[in-house]
Amino acid sequence: MTMTQTEQTAPAALAEEADAGRLEWIDPLEDFHPDKPEESRVIVDPFNHRKKREDGAEDTTEPDPGLIASVEAVGVQQAPVLRPQTGENDGKLGIVMGQRRMKAARAAAERAVADGRKYRKVRVIIRDDLKGVDDEALAGSMVENVHRAAASAQDDLDAAQQLSLMVSAKRVPKARKAQLAAAIGRTTEELDAAPRVAKIAPEVIEELWEEGAEFDWVEQADYAEVEDVPNALWKLEQAKRKDADEGNTKRGAWRQVMQALRTEKAKAERIAATTAELAKKMIPVIGWPHAWQYSTARPVTELESSIGRPLTEAGHNETCSGHAATFDPADGEVVWVCRDFKKQGHRLIGSAPDAEGDGETAQEADAEREAARAEARTVKTNNAAWRSVREVRQEFIVDMCQDKGEAPADVKDLVLTTILAGRYAYTHYVNADCGDRLSTYLKDANLKHTPADVVAKLVKRTGVKRYWWLLFAHIAGMYEVEHMTDEAWRGKKDEFGRRKPIERQTVEWLTFLKAHGYSLSDVEEETLATAQSQAEEKAKQDAQRKADRERWDREREEARLKREAEAQQQAEEDAPAEQADDTDDPVEPPHSDENADADAADGGQEDDEPAAEGDAEPGESDEE
């Protein structure tokens, strides 16, 4: 059947032409001044559906940061609708639809000018047919806002996932990738996370929506990974708030909490798998007794048989019907127990056979054992946390080492001080872990074994400004190997097995990283607090020893001065007494000339002195 020309065009006649308006370019800086409508060529139409309110209600006329970022990246894609004004605003253009887009364009233009960049004009549609037709203008504004159905979260995720795959497939440059991410109001990190988010179960998204959690795509993907861990949502919200309060743009607190939640999840999965294996072996599993002294159960390692032989897991399993298992909450490891050790005829190691659990002595022993268990759990918990947080710290060091700019002064100071002072066992570090650390921090697998030719090529292709970052990577590896070992959080042991204080280098390293934006974990914060307490205690002891030495020196000096004073006083007291003794004692008078003559007349001899043999008596002659 042949149709006439009229019949062929009849269906087209049913389509009515609409008023499309005319296109025009608007300069968002010169033509649009939202805060000064009297100076602006473009104003907000009085009959625009969106109104700026002053009563504290939400202002729906202002663009959000995502819209501004999108306009900065790709401009205004949907043309706003304007109409000529009448009355006192005659000659101006009023925005009927697209008020937020126009404000976003102005904000983007202001940023561009401040940064010395060019900005985009806005293509608009001018509806001359709406001039003076207020009811239709209002209806059109309402239709745009009221009947607009927002895309669902899943729609956005699907689109972002496709965009992410396209970007990856085409190997789009980083700058272009950032521009595309900004166009959809996201970051490149979020764009990379889109494939993960697209796999999230709808109920998880609904949960986040109901709880009012304002998570971006990266955070949503992370939460979906650990949603089964108790209190995961609350802990992550606290971490997000902490990062916001501290201005941490690298999600420091978030990363720490996520690592802890991943560790907790891995522990729960390990416990579940072990429980299933124990069920196959018909071994009961009991809950962890948090107060063992009030429980009938005891760890097998604390028990001995009635004849004093220590019990073993294998032997107890074969001979005792009370054999069972429980899981240490500190690390999720199995602890073998006897569910009722007294009933089974066992006794605690070291207890008297006739005083099983009775009297103050038994209670004191139970208290000591419980204190030892508590200390062991603390050590296990901190050991696990210290090992877990190492991964987050390594990621932060990697980010630092990728810095393309000049290293700050404190990085240079750390490098020079460490090398020149010879603070570390260089040979041990190089032989143990140097290659692995450099390979990790500098993202170069060829450095794993640090061959000289590979290092030489690395230095040659590295800009002079980045030399310091190469050295920093080397020094960072030293600190991690030498001073961040598993025992670093409580201090290493010396050669005699005695626990030493936390190393000064451990404190220096954590303090340095914290100053560069690293968010410390709980165990790292506790380590610094313990080190500070130890330093204060040592300073107190040093001050006390110094005071004691000064007191001893002062007492010795006072004792010396006292002895000297006493000696002086004794000397002064003894001097007059000696003088008095000299006066009282009879003293032979000195010989005078008369006495000398008398002595001569007497023959120069004393009266009672006998005459010398051969001498004549007076009055006798020689003849007689």
UniProtKB/TrEMBL annotation:
Ranges of Low complexity composition bias in the record: 1-15
Chain residue ranges for the region called Disordered: 1-65, 349-370, 529-624
GO-annotated cellular components: chromosome
Gene3D superfamilies linked to this entry: 3.90.1530.30
BP terms from Gene Ontology: chromosome segregation
Acidic residues composition bias: residue spans: 355-365, 571-587, 595-624
Record field: compositional bias (Basic and acidic residues): 19-42, 535-566
Domain called ParB-like N-terminal: residue spans: 42-146
Superkingdom assignment: Bacteria
Listed name of the protein: ParB-like N-terminal domain-containing protein
Species in which this protein is naturally found: Streptomyces bauhiniae
